[in-house]
Amino acid sequence: MTDLSKITSILFVCMGNICRSPTAEAVFRHKALEHGLDLRIDSAGTQGFHKNAKPDVRSVAAGTARGYNFDGLKARRIAPSDFESFDLVVAMDNSNLSDLRDICPMDMQHKIQLFMSFCESSEVEVPDPYYGGAKGFDYVLDLVEQAADGLIENMRG
């Protein structure tokens, strides 16, 4: 596992990079700024079928209602170079985790973590809200906020 106190860059990853990972990026940018952390924060998807798309309007609606900014976020597929350029690669669920482990070089596997592992929760994964209603996006936001707070706490020691 990566030494969290030395993290300077974080990549959040879900499947399509339009719901969960951009939400995590927006929330974590906000919280990092509040805590005075100077970090490079980005998001990506394990699949590339939404390339350059803006985040899902339901994610944006839920997030902006809580004060998060999604401006300039666009979907992209994870690139092999991301494992070198990011200190921490954070998966939203076990399927994403497995996909990342399959494409990550062996010497960088330690950089990959499941997002919910940074907090105490009965949830192990951030569920994909894409095919559900608005409540699913609010629930994802609840989990992302909880995990983001836990990650920041772990980073600060």
Report on this model:
This protein has 157 residues and is of the alpha/beta class. It has one domain: Response regulator (Rossmann fold), CATH 3.40.50.2300. Helices cover 39% and strands 12% of the residues. The protein contains 5 helices and 4 strands, in the order E-H-E-H-H-E-H-E-H. It has helices at 20-34, 57-65, 82-85, 94-103, 134-156; strands at residues 9-14, 40-45, 88-91, 112-114. A 4-stranded parallel sheet has the order 2-1-3-4, with helices on both faces. Strand 3 (88-91), helix 4 and strand 4 form a beta-alpha-beta unit. It is globular and about 40 Å long. The chain starts with 8 loop residues before the first strand and ends with a helix.
Helical segment count: 5
The overall number of domains is 1
**Unreliable residue stretches:** none
Task: Please describe the biggest sheet, giving its number of strands, its sense, and whether it closes into a barrel.
Answer: 4 strands, parallel
Beta-strand percentage range: 5-15%
Query: What is the CA-atom radius of gyration, in angstroms?
Result: 14 Å
Order of helices and strands: EHEHHEHEH
> In percent, how helical is the residue content?
25-40%
Strand order, largest beta sheet: 2-1-3-4
Shape: globular
Distance between the termini: 15 Å
For this structure, what is the CATH homologous superfamily?
A: Response regulator
Structural class: alpha/beta
Mean pLDDT over all positions: 96
At CATH level 3, the topology is Rossmann fold
**Total number of strands:** 4
CATH class equals Alpha Beta
CATH architecture: 3-Layer(aba) Sandwich
